[in-house]
Amino acid sequence: MRLGVDLGGSKIEIIALDDAGEVLLRERVATPHGDYQATVRAVAGLVEAAEQRVGARGTVGVGIPGAESRASGLIKNANSTCLIGQPLKRDLEALLRREVRIANDANCFALSEAVDGAGAGVQVVFGVILGTGVGGGIVVDGKVLTGANAIAGEWGHNRLPPDPCATAGFAQPAGFDSAEQCSAKPCLRPEGGGDSVSPLRGSSILAVPALGRPGGGNPAAEPTCYCGRQGCIELYLSGPGLAADHRRSVGRHAGADFQAIDIAARAAAGDAACDATLQRYEARLARALAQVINILDPNVIILGGGLSNIDRLYQNVPRLWSAHVFSDQVATALVKHRHGDSSGVRGAAWLWP
After folding, report:
1. What span, in angstroms and rounded, lies between the C-alpha atoms of 162 and 177?
2. Gap between the Cα atoms of 344 and 79, Å rounded
3. Which of 125, 225, 270, 320 has the most CB atoms within 10 Å of its CB?
């Protein structure tokens, strides 16, 4: 029996799988907020209770919103800050009296989908979490790639690739955030000329504010991430990032209460402003994933998290990313998860072969 634990900021979930991957048990409890010792006891308690109910002892894998430092063995880069600097693996092993395997929750998501999900049988899988934050995990030949620094796949804290048009100095209207979108409509040259750098020569000059990035591409005007860096992908492609971008484009009062799910629903119903926000989101996601493709060249990219349920992404993003990928064609597929919210906890269980 394999036991998998998904240790999140708001809930802790456990699953028990048999050798065929069938679910024997699944339960969840609230995460003790900001209390490390109580969190460790809650995880151990779930494991012990699950084994009593199933009547068997199992291997234990734990997915966390962070990573275990290769240098110190302590937790780093965790959204659940009470875990940072703590010897989570050591403490759990002491309570459970056995080896415990720990991995980043995005790695667990990718592993779950690679084992028996949307990436089953595929050589290279890049799993993406688009939710409250932005994470990523890499699985090659069925095994998680952790990396020398235990940060493989952490694309969410790279800088968002710049908008080609904004970099060239073009002014852009709301809804434009990429060269490929501009190619379908009149391109906007910099005021005062500069036609030689325009992808579409002879275009009309329009003076409108650039919305490719807050601050018009000025790094000093960009939002700051909790990691201390500016311009992180997570600031634009997370759910809160999408909502914040919409507020910037329509005005704080007009879209103050809109969350990502509201923006997607309104766009589908014909709201032009919300549709423009999703166009910007799609162009940014396309540029960010194109960088992953250029480096990793995965067979498939699998989306998870709340924003993965926006169906238009799977058609629009691959259409847009081709302009940024260093290849004559892009064979990488963009697909939706198969196991949904269960992927993380399933992947934790699959940390054991």
Report:
1. 9
2. 16
3. 125
Contact 238, 223 (CB under 8 A): no
pLDDT one-digit tens code per residue, 89-131 = 999 999 999 999 999 999 999 999 999 999 999 999 999 999 9
What stretches in the chain show pLDDT beneath 50?
A: 168-217
C-alpha gyration radius of the chain? 22
**In whole angstroms, what separates CA 227 from the centre of its chain?**
15
Query: The tokens 């103050």 sit on which residue?
Result: 256
CA nearest neighbour of 38 among 89, 101, 74, 82: 82
* Span 2-117+341-349 CATH architecture: 2-Layer Sandwich (3.30)
Domain boundaries, the chain: 2-117+341-349, 121-162+214-337, 166-212
Coil/strand/helix, residue 321: helix
DSSP 200-250: STTPPP------SSTTTT-GGGSPBPTTS-BSBTHHHHSHHHHHHHHHHHH
In this structure, the strands spanning 143-144 and 124-130 are: unpaired
CA-CA-CA-CA torsion sign (326, 129, 142, 149): positive
The tokens 């799910």 sit on which residue?
Answer: 261
241-269 as b/e: b if 16+ CB within 10 A:
bbbbbbbbbbeeeebeebebeebbebbee
One-letter identity of residue 191: E
C-beta neighbour count of 48 within 10 angstroms: 12
pLDDT of residue 5: 98
CATH number of 121-162+214-337: 3.30.420.40
Contact 102, 90 (CB under 8 A): no
Q: Does 121-162+214-337 match 2-117+341-349 at the fold level?
A: yes
How far is Cα 315 from Cα 307, in angstroms, rounded to an integer?
Answer: 14
Report the predicted TM-score, pTM, of the whole model to 2 decimal places: 0.83
Whether residue 54 contacts residue 42, with contact meaning beta carbons closer than 8 Å, is answered with: no
Helices (H), 97-228: 105-116, 164-168, 179-182
